[in-house]
Amino acid sequence: MRRDVFQAIADPTRREIIGLIAHKTLNLNAIAENFEMSRPAISQHIKILTECGLVEMKQQGRDRYCYIQFQKLAEVAQWIEQYRSFWTGKLDALALHLSKDQQTEQQ
Amino acid sequence: MENEPVIVERVYNAPIGKVWKALTDNNEIKQWYFQLADFKPEVGFKFEFTGGPDDGPQYLHLWEITEIVEGKKLAYTWRYDGYPGNSVVSWELFEQGDKTLLKLTHTGLESFANNGSDFAKTSFNGGWNYFVNDALKNYLEPAA
């Protein structure tokens, strides 16, 4: 099965989990409290996030804490950036098109 | 995680009516956007475009107009035939004297995430190459 950042963010619950732990390291219970679904279901999502490399688990005393892996998150930003350059290119082309019109009218 | 839309804004040195025409008149759309068989600025109008890299897979892009505010706003869904996910592209125009501010917003991109990392790259590259290389080249090196 494919495990990469795109698999990680494809699910809305996993996106919310990333949002929670991006700001603050939390243990499993603290994360599960934010959701209506069962704790095992949340554990399963976190397992996938771990396999995708976005989350690292660390045992501290009796609790297991989830740490976000920011380098992996940057891959997501790069992916979105591709769309931005696509649109920037299109809007440049529109500027060129509009300026051509202007020149034609002035001639 | 925020599902951040892509927002690009640009001020054009052209009146709002002219920019609107460039967005909605198929003869003009062909000049800078995509080669579409037909285009009508009406809610529910569907159009499509097949594109991808010269040496790679081709993707059928499916669009359907969801909102028209005459002269001001055009929005359509953007998805791919045979792939999950749906996104929305909106074009909004704001009059600024004899200039026009265009705000382009592309939301829902995360819904394509499941299609893999190469998806955006391969489904868009054809367009980028054309616009970045050809359009920019023409601009920098006019035939005249």
TrEMBL record, chain A:
Alphabetical list of InterPro entries matching this protein: ArsR-like_HTH, HTH_ArsR_DNA-bd_dom, WH-like_DNA-bd_sf, WH_DNA-bd_sf
Recorded hits in PROSITE patterns, A to Z, give: HTH_ARSR_2 (PS50987)
Q: Where is the HTH arsR-type domain?
A: 1-88
GO molecular-function term, one example from the UniProt record = DNA-binding transcription factor activity
Q: Name one Pfam family in it.
A: HTH_5
Q: What is this protein called?
A: Transcriptional regulator, ArsR family
Origin species, per record, is Pedobacter soli
Automatic annotation (TrEMBL), chain B:
* Ranges for domain Activator of Hsp90 ATPase homologue 1/2-like C-terminal: 13-141
InterPro entries in the record, alphabetically?
Answer: ASHA1/2-like_C (IPR013538), START-like_dom_sf (IPR023393)
From the record, what ranges are coiled-coil? none
Q: Name one Pfam family in it.
A: AHSA1
Q: Which CDD domains match?
A: SRPBCC_CalC_Aha1-like
Listed name of the protein = Uncharacterized conserved protein YndB, AHSA1/START domain
The organism's lineage?
Bacteria, Pseudomonadati, Bacteroidota, Sphingobacteriia, Sphingobacteriales
Q: Which organism is it from?
A: Pedobacter soli
Q: Which family does it belong to?
A: Belongs to the AHA1 family.
